[in-house]
Amino acid sequence: MYKVLLVDDDYPVLELLSEAIDWESLGLTLSGCCENGLAALEAAEREAPDILVTDIGMPKMDGLELIRRLRERKSNLRTVILSCHSEFEYAKRAMQLHVQDYIVKDTLHPDDLAAVLQRMAAGLTAERQLDMEQHRLRRIVDRSHNAMRETWIHGFVQQPLLRSEVWQSELEGYGLPMEGRVILPVVAFLDDLRGARGRYVSDDVLRFAVTNVLDEVMEQTGAEAVVFPYSVKEWVLLHSYRPTLSVNGHEEARRLVERMQAELRRALKLTMSFLVGERCISGEAVKHCVRTLLSSHRQRFYMLPGEIAAARPSSSGDGDPFALYDEAIEAFREGVIKRDAEGVKAKAEEWMKAFNDRRYAPESVKDWALKLLLDIRLKHQSLHYFRTTQSADSLHKDVAEIGSLVELKDWLIEHLLSAVASVQETGGRTVRKEVVDAYEYVSLRLDQRIGLEEVAEHLHLNASYFSRLFKRETGETFIEYVIRTKMERAKQLLDETAYPVLKICELLGYDSQSYFIKLFKGYTGMTPMDYRNRGGDAG
Predict the structure, then answer these.
(1) SS3 call for 5
(2) Which of 22-36, 46-60, 284-298, 427-441 has maximum average pLDDT?
(3) Rounded distance, CA 348 to CA 356, Å?
(4) Residue 529: CA count within 13 A, CB half-sphere
(5) Among candidates 336, 394, 420, 374, which has minimal Cα distance to 536?
(6) Do 127 and 76 meet the contact criterion of CB atoms below 8 Å apart?
(7) Looking at residue 317, what DSSP letter applies?
(8) Separation CA 478–CA 469 (nearest Å)
(9) How far apart, in whole angstroms, are the C-alpha atoms of residue 368 and residue 319?
(10) What is the DSSP letter of 316?
């Protein structure tokens, strides 16, 4: 509803109009009644009106000054003058302030004002709809322009460059000066893509929002550059400059991307990292440089959020991150089961720092973190500790989208602390230490045959007593628990490895493959091979 402010030093007029007009039926709400212009100005600062109905001659501030002051703040303010015959010349002057209507107070009737207000409300609605339509059309044009730029940069990077004059004229068509210039390519990477996606309804909206901010920065700075959206997390910036002694193209580009970073943080609360290439004087050189920047996965992986770095040749660290994996998994498993959140977090930061120092291949480091998390989850599921909030496929997808070691560290710590919280919650509900010890005994020996008697002996308990205790505390027999735990492990091995059924059977301590298949079918309703080949229809 549109807001109306009434201003008149004649209180009976205010009372008559405020009570006699059915504001709601007109699609209006009366936001205030004031007896002088100064009070009205203060009220408008608290709640800006859409329509102002005001007398002219009033103490402290007259109506004309009030209109002028409010118009400075809201140019599309609708105004109505209430005028006496003696003030008619003032009313004429009011027309210079684009007052939409005036009503002579001597013949004032509420219905007359209501009719004027109804016309104004209709005009405001039409203006709003026109603004919305123009905004929609501008967005369509902008999206089309962005799509054209994305198509162009993909074609430029991936297809042969046949004629140099063609790519130059096309870049000039995008507003990039080319004559007597060199090109400095820069590739921008959106930091924390997973977090950014969580705040936007689609990748298209995210990409559109970021591209618009980058375009606005270049328009504001007058930069001789053009931005091409390349993917939901990558943008290619081509900066053009004259190679003279007084011009440092790299410094110009750095100032530009720093401005982009600041505006992205302010407008979208996003951060972006930049890799800066070398100056290029030919289309082939530009293409080669852009390709190199886009494929610099190792350097990008070890950059800090918001870092601006010059591209450098890729260098691989010696060794394999899995060489010390067994040591790491035991340390993390112990920390989780002891509910040592700070210790687990510190251990994760320690390992990530070691990877940063040694610069292993990013995919190996990501595989290491994923395997660590899945193994911890598997072991602690068998202890009823780990709440499974994400499938293995979902975790794989998460890791694939992670672009930096910092993001990987945050992701790993988040899931490890979730594991600790699960242990704290579930462990708090377990009343008997013997049951927890039995869970742990089983989790460490899934590759062996496990019997009730050996576990009871390990716990220094009578086998019959332990059997009754376990059933009372958990609601299932110990043998049922062992079978269920092994079948859950079998499901994960079928999902996450290419091991044949016989190999999985051996890994779970079963001598007879047919017996294993019988147990698995009794637990899941399908054979191991049917389970593996089920596609996306079963979980």
Answers:
(1) strand
(2) 284-298
(3) 12
(4) 5
(5) 394
(6) yes
(7) P
(8) 10
(9) 13
(10) P
Segment (H or E) for 186: strand 182-190
pLDDT at 18: 87
Assign 142 a pLDDT band (cuts: 50, 70, 90): low
What is each CA distance from 376 to 4, 85, 170, 440, 453, in whole angstroms?
Answer: 64, 88, 54, 12, 27
State the residue for tokens 């919305």: 132
How many whole angstroms separate alpha carbon 539 and alpha carbon 525? 12
Q: How far is CA 468 from CA 208, 435, 452, 477, 484, in A?
A: 63, 11, 11, 8, 18
* Dihedrals phi, psi of 363, to nearest 5 degrees: -65, -35
Please report, as a single letter, which amino acid is at residue 34: C
386-395 pLDDT, tens digit each: 445 566 778 8
- Kindly state the average pLDDT of the residues 201-211: 89
The helix/strand/coil state of 477 is coil
Phi, psi of 284 (to 5 degrees): -65, -40
Q: What separation, in Å, do the N-terminal and C-terminal C-alpha atoms of the chain show? A: 51
Rounded distance between C-alpha atoms, residue 237 and residue 136, angstroms:
27
Q: How far apart are CA 334 and CA 376, in angstroms?
A: 10
Question: Quick one: tokens of 261?
Answer: 């970073």
What is the structure's pLDDT at 537?
Answer: 47
pLDDT higher than 90, residue 77 = no
Q: Which of 315, 337, 342, 352 is nearest to 384 (CA)?
A: 337
For 1-5, 347-351, 461-465, which range has the lowest pLDDT when averaged over its residues? 1-5
Start-end of H helices in 402-432: 405-429
In whole angstroms, what is the distance from residue 182 CA to residue 104 CA? 70
Q: What is the dihedral of CA 466, 468, 469, 473, to 10 degrees?
A: 140
Q: Which of 213, 200, 208, 303 is nearest to 257 (CA)?
A: 213
* Residue 303 per-residue DSSP state: P
Cα separation, 362 vs 322, in Å, equals 13
Report the predicted TM-score, pTM, of the whole model to 2 decimal places: 0.58
**Strand (E) positions, 282-409?**
308-310
Pull the structure tokens for residue 483. 């079978």
Q: 63-73 vs 88-95: helix axis angle to the nearest 10?
A: 10
